[in-house]
């Protein structure tokens, strides 16, 4: 009986490993990026900003290409590129035809009466991921981007976007020097996601705090924990 159970366990483990091995992702180099996102393709799909980074990933539903684009409006005194807008595109390649699956558009907060509220917006690629988080054979793309305020990260914004089986789930966060300036808005659909995905996203947010890219109020952390506990029950 013990041997039978062991065999079943190993069989299931092997099946899971095979299923997960079918899910891959990688960053495209410049040559690959220019080949797929050529001038004609960009014109057809209204990709007008420079491509900052491009990815491809494959899962059981097909092969996909993602472009993260930034407006690159100017260069500041520190020789950093300043962006007023960002856009992301996801295309599925099916029988030689590229179909757009989703698009992200955002921009830095406009100046108010000549006062600059935010200096730039850009993709935080160190947090962007294309992984099969819950092991269902489908990649769960996570796109993260944010802004600089007058005090850098301390009063900028951060936005985390997850695509789960075609559903867009967003966590919006405003950093602030003072406690009452910090605000976090979580889509209610986040709490209906599998616990493994919720935990994964929360770990990304925790890393953002550790790296001083985000400051979350304790009330938000307590709320997240309570919500997850309630879903689990």
Q: How does the SSE layout of this entry go?
A:
Elements: H1 2-21, E1 24-27, H2 30-36, H3 39-44, E2 51-59, E3 62-70, E4 74-75, E5 81-82, E6 85-94, E7 97-107, E8 120-123, E9 129-131, E10 140-148, E11 157-164, E12 167-174, E13 183-186, H4 195-210, H5 218-232
How would you characterize the overall build of this protein?
Residues 1-19 form the signal peptide. This is GLPGLI family protein. Keywords: Signal. This protein is an alpha+beta fold. The chain has one domain (24-232). Helices cover 27% and strands 36% of the residues. The protein has helices at 2-21, 30-36, 39-44, 195-210, 218-232; strands at 24-27, 51-59, 62-70, 74-75, 81-82, 85-94, 97-107, 120-123, 129-131, 140-148, 157-164, 167-174, 183-186. The strands form three sheets. Strands 8, 9, 10, 11, 12 and 13 form a six-stranded antiparallel sheet that branches. It has a five-stranded antiparallel sheet with strand order 1-2-3-6-7, with no helix packed on it. A hairpin with a 2-residue loop joins strand 6 and strand 7 (97-107). Residues 1-21 and 225-233 have low confidence and may be disordered.
Order of helices and strands: HEHHEEEEEEEEEEEEHH
Distance between the termini: 33 Å
The major sheet is characterized as:
6 strands, antiparallel
Strand content: 35-45%
Low-confidence stretches: 1-21, 225-233
**Total domains:** 1
Shape: globular
Average pLDDT score: 86
By DSSP (H or I, 4+ residues per run), the number of helices equals: 5
Radius of gyration (Å): 20 Å
Tags for this model:
single chain, 233 residues, alpha+beta, six-stranded antiparallel β-sheet, five-stranded antiparallel β-sheet, 27% helix, disordered C terminus, signal
